[in-house]
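Tokens help. Consider this.
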Amino acid sequence: MPITESIQHLILSQGNAMQIAEQAKREGVRDLRGSGLLKVRHGVTSIEEILGVTNE
């Protein structure tokens, strides 16, 4: 994940993982499942593989 100024500020001010993830999402960073689903759409992998790896 790219460390932007706002994410760096959260890290330095001891923000928790959820706060950092929420900020990253607001900045357009895809989570692991979102990245995987894009690969499914492009035919690189299967939905079963993504669901098995991300088990949310």
About this structure: The mean pLDDT is 93. The radius of gyration is 14 Å. The chain has four helices and no strands.
